[in-house]
């Protein structure tokens, strides 16, 4: 059947009328900040303390835009007769956001929870070299990472938190013990010094 003349125009006008009556979805950025979902992929933050320099993120990054330098340090044996250990020390950690495609693979593969998404996105630069964020800048992004959702009250305590709590309790107990030993040593010292002082007073009185 041949098309009715003017039907295309009528359809177009119908779409225009429908759209005109709908609520506008245009964001008035930058005058109004957009409301972003909590899991927005804006920028990557580095929690350096958790990084063991395993290089997994740099190896898996499809864009090769993570740059890591490190050196090895020898850690003395924890107990007498034990063996010395060597550990990696981070010298440089940088991400080139001019190459990054925000796939999130680095964050997924990090076995030590050292990388996180932050929803911050306002870091455009006029010089492309400034888009390589070094470790200090990556650390600063950490403070913009939203807190994880609350755990189910019936859930088991996560093993990382349990391990951290035990380590903190052990350290606190050790510190208390040391403080107690110091107090006792001080008291003994004071008790020894008192008779000596009394003796010297008595000697002085005898001479007089
Ligand atoms: S988000 Fe993807 S592209 Fe960007 S640094 Fe991580 S792995 Fe590389
Ligand atoms: S994968 Fe994680 S722990 Fe390993 S080097 Fe990358 S950030 Fe550090």
Automatic annotation (TrEMBL):
Sequence positions that bind [4Fe-4S] cluster 1: 51, 54, 57, 110
UniProt keyword annotation of Amino-acid biosynthesis present: no
Reactions performed catalytically: a quinone + NADH + 5 H(+)(in) = a quinol + NAD(+) + 4 H(+)(out)
Basic and acidic residues: bias regions: 156-169
Enzyme class: translocase
A Pfam family per the record: Fer4
Biased composition (Low complexity): 188-208
Cofactor: [4Fe-4S] cluster
All copies of domain 4Fe-4S ferredoxin-type, residue ranges: 42-71, 91-120
Cofactor info, note text: Binds 2 [4Fe-4S] clusters per subunit.
Protein family per UniProt: Belongs to the complex I 23 kDa subunit family.
Name by which UniProt lists this protein: NADH-quinone oxidoreductase subunit I
Phylogenetic placement of the source organism: Bacteria, Bacillati, Actinomycetota, Actinomycetes, Kitasatosporales
């Amino acid at each position: 059947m041949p098309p009715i003349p003017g039907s295309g125009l009528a359809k177009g006008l119908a779409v225009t009328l429908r759209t005109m009556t709908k609520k506008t979805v245009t964001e008035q950025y930058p005058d109004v900040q957009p409301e972003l979902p909590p899991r927005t992929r804006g920028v990557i933050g580095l929690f350096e303390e958790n990084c063991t320099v395993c290089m997994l993120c740099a190896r898996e990054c499809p864009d090769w835009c993570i740059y890591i330098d490190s050196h090895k340090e020898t850690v003395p044996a924890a107990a007498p007769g034990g063996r010395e250990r060597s550990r990696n020390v981070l010298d440089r950690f940088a991400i080139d956001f001019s190459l990054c495609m925000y796939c999130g693979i680095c964050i997924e593969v990090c076995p030590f929870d050292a990388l996180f998404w932050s929803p911050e996105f306002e870091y455009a630069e006029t010089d492309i070299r400034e888009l390589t964020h070094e470790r200090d800048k990556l650390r600063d992004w950490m403070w913009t990472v939203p807190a994880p959702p609350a755990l189910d009250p019936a859930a088991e305590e996560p093993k990382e938190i349990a391990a951290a709590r035990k380590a903190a309790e052990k350290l606190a107990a050790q510190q208390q013990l040391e403080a107690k030993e110091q107090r006792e040593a001080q008291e003994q010292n004071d008790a020894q010094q008192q008779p000596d002082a009394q003796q010297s007073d008595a000697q002085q009185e005898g001479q007089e």
